[in-house]
Specification:
- The structure is a single chain.
- With 207 residues, the chain is mostly helical.
- It has one domain.
- Helix content is 76%, strand content 0%.
- It is built from 11 helices and no strands.
- Helix 2 runs parallel beside helix 9, helix 4 packs antiparallel against helix 9 and helix 5 packs across helix 8.
- The longest helix is centred in the C-terminal third of the chain and has 29 residues.
- It is globular and about 60 Å long.
Length: 207
């Protein structure tokens, strides 16, 4: 399988750009450590699968033409981001700190499920992949479906790798954060504000 430099560079820029998934992975690393950040990265990557399949199978076109369906998914995503912001401020969400002395309030499975929902409830992802993938499939491609699936797999691997780097980096400075209540309080407010901002951005999104 040959990959163009344009595809790899564009994919890296898209993956590394700060968004909801990156934000959640950073929060998981800061509050729960390296293992949680890897689980968050895996969940965010897994959450891309439905959007990839929708784009490859042409279902994103339905989402694009159906105003009602788009609005339903969009507002569910907005509501979920606002809930995450509230939980973060209340110390029950993404930045709930866990130490050796405190019980593990969330399993790795819970972190993965939350991360999956973060990406699934964003209808813009399906439309993005619908526009993104075909650009890198040659007009005379013998098996265009297989080619798009291959490109999707590479994109997902890049997503997981970059998110793990983000998460592990956040986990590396975790001790410096959780041992300073003032810093942790500031970060909770900052992350909550970021979730609200992303929710507002999604609310203003058009098809």
């Amino acid at each position: 399988m040959q990959l163009s430099a344009e595809f790899l560079i564009t994919s890296l820029i898209v993956v590394a750009s700060p968004g909801t998934g990156v934000l959640y992975t950073l929060a998981a690393g800061l509050s729960r450590g390296r293992g949680a950040s890897v689980a968050a990265a895996f969940g965010c990557t897994l959450g891309i699968v439905p959007h990839m399949l929708a784009a490859v199978l042409g279902l994103a076109a339905v989402l694009h033409t159906s105003a009602l369906l788009f609005q339903i998914v969009k507002w569910l995503g907005v509501a979920y981001l606002l809930v995450m912001a509230w939980q973060t401020l209340r110390e029950h969400g993404a930045l709930r700190v866990e130490t050796e002395e405190t019980p593990k309030t969330r399993s790795r499975r819970d972190i993965v499920v939350t991360a999956v929902l973060v990406n699934i409830l964003n209808p813009k992802l399906s439309l993005f992949f619908l526009a993104f993938l075909p650009q890198f499939v040659a007009a005379g491609e013998a098996a265009p479906l297989q080619r798009m699936l291959e490109l999707s797999a590479v994109f997902m691997l890049m997503t997981f790798a970059v998110f793990v780097v983000y998460g592990v980096a956040a986990a590396a400075v975790r001790t410096h954060v959780i041992t300073r209540p003032a810093v942790l309080s500031w970060m909770r407010r900052a992350f909550a504000a970021a979730f609200v901002a992303l929710g507002a951005k999604l609310a203003l999104a058009e098809r």
